[in-house]
Design a protein that fits this description.
346 residues; Spore Coat Polysaccharide Biosynthesis Protein SpsA, Chain A; 2 domains; 7-stranded mixed sheet; Nucleotide-diphossugar_trans
């Protein structure tokens, strides 16, 4: 569990863990320098909890992704479940997830959930698009499963140091979010299982740390982003893809002559994605509409929007054709400036 000023909802989440039909071996809490009574809430719970509770306070703020990964690294069991401080686990979550690991030998198990807004009695089913047993080839390269629904084999953390993960494509000031990172690692080590069971209640409120379900930008802001961030968005994804390729190449080299067909296929997919991003970035870096239209045609011929690298090929190719006509000139400079301000590597 990663905590930060969580006193308001933390007791309900802790109680839901204590009510599991299959209790965890331990609860490891990493706190990101809370200024409220989070520590006291956890320590009070630990006095009566039916399992050991360990509390660690980070000497400096890590923010939510690195805080989750720090907590996971401190766990001693074979499996780790990410736990948000403000959700509620349903009683059979760990039992059903554990049974799925026993049944399938998966690297990661995710599940469906119920989403509710603070102050409202309405609940909605939050459902992942994929379900069942998924091979790495079944997952589009950028797919991931939200952390609150994920349990994974702890040895995934040994695949590659988390400090080497790419910068995040949504918030480039920090490295890739913990759930995207763990999903990627899981694809390198076996299958993913998505259960149809709703095993947690995801609470939405104004102070969610990750904010992934908050409302989108206005029409004006979206148009401004389209005008200014065409190359920037592609460059972020290209940089992340390159880092994933480096990690996979290292894993392939470590396996030597051992059976590595799954890793090779995964590496091929990321190399295809890298090639596609290069072709698409070439569109944005042209300053004239005629030049962009030419590059767009070349990208189409090179398969930059084929299904293996574009989840929705036709809408994506049409969207980038439109961007070619409305994006400001000087995209290369704009992207470089934005990436530099965010601290993103060139």
């Amino acid at each position: 569990m990663a905590t930060y000023n969580g006193e308001r909802y933390l007791p309900e989440q802790l109680e839901s863990i204590a009510q599991q039909t299959l209790l965890p071996d331990e609860l490891v809490v990493c706190d990101d320098q809370s200024s409220d009574s989070t520590r006291a809430v956890v320590e009070d719970f630990g006095q009566t909890a039916p399992f050991p509770v360990y509390f660690h306070e980070n000497p400096q703020r890590l923010h939510f992704a690195d805080n989750f990964l720090e907590a996971a690294a401190r766990c001693r069991g074979d499996y780790v479940a990410f736990c948000d401080q403000d959700d509620v686990w349903l009683p059979e979550k760990l039992e059903r997830v554990g049974a799925a690991f026993d049944r399938t030998g998966a690297a990661l198990v995710a599940h469906q959930a119920l989403s509710f807004t603070e102050g409202s009695d309405r609940e909605e089913r939050f459902q992942f698009a994929h379900h069942g047993i998924l091979l790495p080839d079944d997952l589009f390269p950028w797919h991931f499963f939200f952390g609150f629904a994920c349990t994974f084999r702890r040895d995934l953390l040994d695949v590659s140091p988390s400090a080497l993960r790419p910068f995040d494509v949504i918030d480039p000031r920090r490295r890739l979010a913990h759930d995207r990172w763990i999903t990627f690692l899981a694809t390198t080590r076996g299958i993913v299982v998505v259960l149809p069971d709703e095993l947690a209640r995801y609470r939405q409120h104004d102070t969610n740390e990750s904010g992934w379900m908050r409302s989108g930008r206005s029409a004006g802001a979206a148009y401004s982003a389209a005008r200014n961030r065409f190359a920037y968005n592609l460059a972020k994804h290209l940089s992340a893809a390159r880092r994933f390729i480096e990690i996979l190449e290292e894993q392939v080299a470590k396996q030597g002559n051992a059976d590595r067909s799954d890793l090779d296929r995964l590496l091929d997919r990321w190399r295809e994605l890298d090639e596609a991003y290069r072709a698409r970035l070439a569109i944005a870096e042209e300053d004239t509409r005629a030049g962009r239209l030419k590059r767009w045609g070349e990208a189409m011929k090179r398969g930059a929007y084929r299904p293996s690298v574009a989840e929705r090929p036709l809408p994506m190719s049409a969207r980038e054709l439109a961007l070619a006509f409305i994006a400001r000139p000087g995209q290369r400079g704009l992207a470089k400036s934005m990436l530099s301000q965010a601290g993103y590597p060139e």
